Amino acid sequence: xxxxxxxxxxxxxxxxxxxxxxxxxxxxxxxxxxxxxxxxxxxxxxxxxxxxxxxxxxxxxxxxxxxxxxxxxxxxxxxxxxxxxxxxxxxxxxxxxxxxxxxxxxxxxxxxxxxxxxxxxxxxxxxxxxxxxxxxxxxxxxxxxxxxxxxxxxxxxxxxxxxxxxxxxxxxxxxxxxxxxxxxxxxxxxxxxxxxxxxxxxxxxxxxxxxxxxxxxxxxxxxxxxxxxxxxxxxxxxxxxxxxxxxxxxxxxxxxxxxxxxxxxxxxxxxxxxxxxxxxxxxxxxxxxxxxxxxxxxxxxxxxxxxxxxxxxxxxxxxxxxxxxxxxxxxxxxxxxxxxxxxxxxxxxxxxxxxxxxxxxxxxxxxxxxxxxxxxxxxxxxxxxxxxxxxxxxxxxxxxxxxxxxxxxxxxxxxxxxxxxxxxxxxxxxxxxxxxxxxxxxxxxxxxxxxxxxxxxxxxxxxxxxxxxxxxxxxxxxxxxxxxxxxxxxxxxxxxxxxxxxxxxxxxxxxxxxxxxxxxxxxxxxxxxxxxxxxxxxxxxxxxxxxxxxxxxxxxxxxxxxxxxxxxxxxxxxxxxxxxxxxxxxxxxxxxxxxxxxxxxxxxxxxxxxxxxxxxxxx
Amino acid sequence: xxxxxxxxxxxxxxxxxxxxxxxxxxxxxxxxxxxxxxxxxxxxxxxxxxxxxxxxxxxxxxxxxxxxxxxxxxxxxxxxxxxxxxxxxxxxxxxxxxxxxxxxxxxxxxxxxxxxxxxxxxxxxxxxxxxxxxxxxxxxxxxxxxxxxxxxxxxxxxxxxxxxxxxxxxxxxxxxxxxxxxxxxxxxxxxxxxxxxxxxxxxxxxxxxxxxxxxxxxxxxxxxxx
Lengths: 619, 226
What we know:
The structure holds two protein chains of two kinds.
Chain A: H1 2-8, E1 35-41, H2 45-48, H3 52-63, E2 67-73, H4 77-86, E3 104-108, H5 115-125, E4 140-144, E5 160-162, H6 166-182, H7 187-194, E6 200-201, E7 206-210, E8 216-221, E9 230-231, E10 259-262, E11 264-265, H8 276-279, E12 284-285, H9 288-302, E13 306-310, H10 320-333, E14 337-339, H11 347-356, E15 363-369, H12 373-378, H13 385-398, E16 402-409, H14 416-436, E17 445-452, H15 469-482, E18 488-492, H16 495-505, H17 511-521, H18 534-544, H19 548-552, E19 567-568, H20 573-585, H21 602-606
Parallel strand pairs in A: 1-2, 1-3, 3-4, 4-5, 9-19, 10-13, 13-14, 15-16, 16-17, 17-18
Antiparallel strand pairs in A: 5-6, 7-8, 11-12
Helix pairs in contact in A: 3-6, 5-17, 6-7, 9-10, 11-13, 13-14, 14-15, 17-18
Chain B: E1 3-13, H1 22-35, E2 52-54, E3 63-78, H2 79-89, E4 94-101, H3 109-112, E5 115-122, H4 129-138, E6 143-148, E7 151-156, E8 161-167, E9 172-178, H5 187-190, E10 201-211, E11 217-218, H6 222-225
């Protein structure tokens, strides 16, 4: 098999995607390990290698004597053709074993538009698509990740879905699969046992009934021993949680090709559109000491020239100043640079960025998300116009000349005045740059990037309608015209892509038919503009007899049963509804890290708390 | 002996190293040097980069036993120490084969290289390679399409071929051709003329050479002995 693979490699683009043997990859003796798990990423090697969750799970699983983890990514289209021509199935990188020979294949659900790739990968591996078609001859197909809070469009394909922090569940899962192999349990028996693990959802044990209008009537479990509602698992103390001391260093350049440490998990700023800000609660920070130790270990074992301090909002880390100052000093001696992936909109964050980027000052990115204070209050993005101006003023003063501004359009209650607000903010930022930057030097550039708002499960906006595609395009044009001046670059997300994302984000099991049909028609790599075929998708909806607008454009009733009603991130439906009401009243909600509990119920119901290193948390 | 701030290394590229680009090799060497904790010198400026100077870019897919890189260190180190410390941390497909001290001032290696030698081993049975090569060498003009700056172009490569012969015993073509900044032949560009495809062969670089006085060919290590 490997020889065959080697022969086709010279004919494919970026062959090093498929060669493995990277530094720090873990190769175990296949026959001597009881449980074998493939970590499957439904996108290219370059994208998948940047995923921190996979690095953590790879480390935890391979630490065990009785288990191994290997990686598999979606082969690029040219490689798929070669594999087909040579009759090669999809194999894992480390051992070159077919995916079908593993005990468990774990997919990550990062993005709705990668769902088609999951089915395509099963096809390439020769594994039957449907859970009902698979017995013990085939691996368990499991999944986790942010889209796991509504995996319903994939319900027929997946054997189980893990909700919450994977490092909490993975050990129990491997133990169970190991014993069920030893005891030769049937697939059905194994799944029933898996459903007893807290945080594990087995779709086949839940039956969905629909009303005449097409909404959900009931979600009922079909086995008495499975839970009515599956609650996510949480790492209570991130500082004690396992983290790799070595990371695979790829031969070719990948996304996030650098040392990554996770400064904290969760965010309680409470932006009402943001799924991550809801599902990863509460906030758990690592200590400065632990982070420094991890960074130095990883630099030693990888030789990387860059460190990234990752989290949903690293500027909010309570000891960020100390961490950045101390790390930057340590790293500078080694010729290593430090980067902060997400900047808060304020001058403090710019000061931090200045601290670490002494030399290279190209661009800084800020995300005000909406153009007016009114709309920012609606979405609870607690950034004031002055904050942005102070931040960019500080940035221009420090020598940056390119500012990127992220906005969303199609937000609830949005009017044309809010779009004027976006243009005004951008114009004022450019004006500040012109005043600040020396006349004879580089000219300021303001890049305005506009995404379409997609309502996501588990957020206060889960009831909202996705804005009509025509209207979104008109809004994009409206902004483009206003920003057609020297000094601005305007870019906008592809509208049909966002529409499809909106359909699947809140889709139910009936969409499984559409997914299967779309893959048959040739849909894959939908997140890649050059491969996205909206026409084929519409064809697939038509063939399956399903109206996609029903999922995208319909505002949900207050008491509507969602497809994900039985899956819980711990944030209560009552809280989300209250937040939605507040949105329409323009009332903001504070961050519970620094103020009172806002009543989202995560801490009470999951028996956890915010854990801040600054000591301000409710210990 | 061999203590120097400037070190010339010869390294080999095997599987799976042959499948990555020159830029990837550059990054990989930089990272290996960090892991080996060698006191490499950095360029001044906006984004400091380690002071490495490669002799040549190796075409993707080709293995080699004749790649060269010059390192500039902040302090003097024994050349053998540099070699062994790097070999301890290099990933599969890369190995340092030889190391020697460089004089402080030395011209950029890349500007010196003129010639390369390759072995092109055929994987299956190819019966009449010998006459095909003889035919080829008898011609004055050999047009092939080559990619330059993303564009397909026709080019006459006859003058770039110094020597070519078929070694029937080992089933491989021995090729000596122009290589360097002034004139360069990628061995794979020659394959269509021989009726071969890239997947039919394994290409291995055996030497990178510098044309000296009286057309004498020297390795980048020979020139140091001069």
